[in-house]
Give the backbone structure.
Amino acid sequence: MPPRTRGGYTSTAPRRRPTGSERRRRVQLREVEPEHPRHDRDETEEVLEGAPGGPIDRCILRSFHKHVAAKIWLGEDRAPLKLVNHGAKLQLWDLDVERSRIYETVQRSGLAPLISCSHRVASRPMLSAFCERWQPETTTFHLPFGEMTITLDDVASILHIPITGSMISFSQPLRVDDANALLVELLGTTDVEASRETEQCRSPSVRLQWLRENFSTITDVSSDDDIDFATRAFLLHLVGCTLFADKSATSVGVVYLELFRDLSMVGSYAWGAACLAFMYRQLTTATRFEVRQLGGYLTLLQAWIYEHFPEMFSSPDMAYIESRPRALRWRPHVIPDSLQSLRERLDRLQISDVCWEPYVDHRAEHPFPDIAWFSGCIKCGLVVEPYHPERVLRQFGHIQTIPLRPFAPPRPDRSILLDQYWERWTDHVLIDHSRGRRCHYSGESVAEYMAWYDRISHRIVQPPHLRSGFTTDARSSLPSHTASTSDSRNARALRLLRHVISGGRQQSGDYFWGALNEAHSILAGSDETSASHSTPSPAPASHSTPSPATRPFFCPPTFVYPPPASVDPPPAAVDPHPSSPVAPPAPAAGPTASTTVYVRSKRKKKT
């Protein structure tokens, strides 16, 4: 039997080079030979092209058939993502006055704002709903009216960390042996301790708890080497809880420890750009239907949503001042709506619902960074992601035009070229012609933009046949009592509470108690129930007060003492101001008088 080679069965004679005619014949056969299509991919694309919300032209969203939004249109669904948030763990390592030397080094690094601005609470439905609108090819959120994304300006304003400087680069993935050597050299551990920790993590990583247990007890009275070890451990713990929080949820990669070798050079890195590239990659990974977890710095994503959609999701902190990071402007809270409800709310978004330039009041303290106009690739180690400011010109106050086709990021092994581009970022910013004109009104775009966007985007996530039916049109078709009673109660209670919160802490406790009592009555419906099912008897003029339904929301609630049951109410002439609160009657003079007096605690006191 002749020997089998890569090309089939051949003879043992030496191989002869094909002639030119044979090569041309082979090329012709390849061109004529039909190509077998991939039926699985074509069938998926055919179904998606017919969907009302799918992209008609796939020249941009090439991998949409793998997107979670495509699966939702096909009838499959995904629960809210599990979030990796370490905001509470940062409080477990406190840099008090006994560790002032460590804190001074952290301040010089530019990463100190991360200690205080991290949110301890993250809303799973809200972040999951926005993650379903992320498109990896454009690195933007595709909303009903156009694209939006997190820009370098957002990172600088929300976190106050440096976005200029050297790019964070790694030539190759870190091996476990190299990780052990770094732990011994830069943290002062023994070989046995380092090997035991990496073996427990089953990767070149260390646990966040291990860092706290071994280095949080070092104070200023320790040796200089120990303080340097503790400073590097704290910085590694800090970036592992914030900028580079991965889906392990308990550990951080030792590869970032190399960035803290020279503590005097930590502030020279573009931490904001690396954080944004890492966040882009985590969002891209979470768009796959089989993924159930979202990593990255969720404070950045959540604060970005609060800034650009304040009327829908935000809860402002009245004590905020503009010199602090914008992440501290908001009180993080869990959105009570379900994921399906938030999908439908985002499907109904309009241009007027967006705050396109939220940092106008912040410019005095934090001017606009010109590097936000950089158009190219940003990097975090081996993670390379494209950055397209030309696709979100409205976030910079410019008229949105039809952008060019997005470019694919190069391979990570070409890191030297990417670093050179980033170092000369002034040569790679959008020119004035590409930026276009300033907007005459917020959210302005050219006339042909929406027609182009309808063709290449996936604007609607929730399919029409799977919607709850409680849209704006559906609510108007319901009976008036069913459609408006609950909404009106919520609106009245929110207006009342918003007025109380805006008044600050200088108000009396009785005022707070009365406002909360009235809001509870509105939400419980006791004010309307009593008014509709009972006929109130005419009250004297001295006890008349406007009902919560008719009282303007800006008026403080009026407190009225209930009339005593055993004593007739005073005549109307006693109080010349019927709208003012009625004071309790004064007790009669003399030891023989026995009068029941009603006080605010509603207890009877006999004198």
Notes: The first strand starts at residue 4 and ends at 5. The CA atoms of residues 373 and 432 lie 10 Å apart. Residues 1-14, 24-48, 471-484, 528-605 have pLDDT under 50 and may be disordered. Residues 480-502 form the longest helix (23 residues).
